[in-house]
């Protein structure tokens, strides 16, 4: 059972070392020897010793000190102390420091074998215990890493969710309302948005979601010094009572504050908000600020573009007063029809822009053709038809009006596919183009032209019904006819 054990004999008495070497070698042990503490430590450093048989008296260091060093280096090494005299205090001290046993010289070899066998068993148990502890420690570390990883994944997922929600906003969405909804979802808290009344130095409630349990947000709040100081500090939040206030900043100026009501704890530096809560709140307010800034930029660009287009329209109108009035009426009818059809605000906005300028391409048609007080030849008609393409070209010069450009291109398509310029049919024609087509057709017939007088209302309605399903979208035509019959105010 002790065969193969690596044993270090440490004794300055060469005879004892020789005897023990012979005896233990015969029993299959691998023997190393040292006559001083220094040699013993060198042997322990260079070889994986399992048992040390250690004399308590050495020339350079006491056996007890060496025992201590050995046990600190490797607690699984079994140390059997040997001594020439019996000293109970020494024995107790050695045992306290981890000696496996204590043999008094001269000792019987059988007893040594017996003690060694026990030491080997104990050592095995000790190693097993250490392995178990290490694997438990590893398991704990893995669990900790897993938890951190899960937290990171959760954090990234939430960040992605927040970015996604803001990126998917369309021009009609209310950024403030979305921001409040996202905060309420992510933090499971309630929030609202305040704008600033600088005259009264107060916050005024601007947007909140209805809450059913009697919670309410104050309509007005005094602005504290802390709020403004911390809004501009790198910390970018301010806690008052159970609320966290975060500014929406645009170009370094605040435009308002989000107030988030936490739960429970009050009066601490972070209120009841964790670092993670505050991190997400800052991310949400940053995203909302960017959205609002982009919209402000878009609107100012849009205003500029519309101003330019209006100048173009004025130039056309100076040539052709019919076009001016015609475009006005087509816009009004298109908006009334879109209202009746229940279209969304975005489509109405598009019609509001496109209606007055749907014939902007006529700027490219020579006066001799545009203002001709007689029927057009086929060649002249072909030139007139190009106005929808010219109109698209003009609109495409403004990147932000690409949708409007498409609607202008197709405002002379026919529902049956026989229109121009692309021969699109049915719902392939943009809905706003189909609306303009109905109103355009009606108005062209209902008003006096240079080469003919207006048709009577009865004649116009008959003609419109005749065009239903061919030139004009049948559902839109029905709705339009209904509108004319109800309102009767579009006669030129
Ligand atoms: Fe036109």
Furnish the topology, listing elements before pairings.
Blueprint: E1 6-10, H1 14-26, E2 30-34, H2 37-46, E3 51-55, H3 63-73, E4 78-83, H4 88-96, E5 101-104, H5 109-167, H6 175-187, E6 190-197, E7 202-208, E8 220-222, H7 225-232, E9 238-240, E10 243-250, E11 253-261, H8 275-319, H9 321-341, H10 345-357, H11 367-370, H12 378-385, H13 387-396, H14 402-409, H15 431-446, H16 457-467, H17 474-487
Parallel strand pairs: 1-2, 1-3, 3-4, 4-5
Antiparallel strand pairs: 6-7, 6-11, 7-8, 9-10, 10-11
Bound molecules: fe (ii) ion (FE2).
- Across the major sheet, the strand order is 8-7-6-11-10-9
**Number of helical elements:** 17
| SSE order, one letter for each helix or strand | EHEHEHEHEHHEEEHEEEHHHHHHHHHH
Shape designation: elongated
Biggest sheet statistics = 6 strands, antiparallel
Q: What distance lies between the first and last C-alpha atoms, to the nearest angstrom?
A: 118 Å
Report the strand count.
Answer: 11
Bound molecules: fe (ii) ion
Task: Identify the quaternary structure here.
Answer: single chain
| Count of all domains | 3
Query: Low-confidence spans: pLDDT under 50, at least 5 residues?
Result: none
Give Rg in angstroms.
Answer: 46 Å
Highest-level CATH class of the largest domain: Mainly Alpha
- Report the β-strand fraction as a percent range: 5-15%
Percent helix range? 55-70%
Which architecture name of the largest domain does CATH use? Orthogonal Bundle
Q: What structural category arises from helix and sheet content?
A: alpha/beta
What is the assigned CATH homologous superfamily of the largest domain?
Hypothetical protein af1432
Mean pLDDT: 86
CATH topology-level fold name of the largest domain: Hypothetical protein af1432
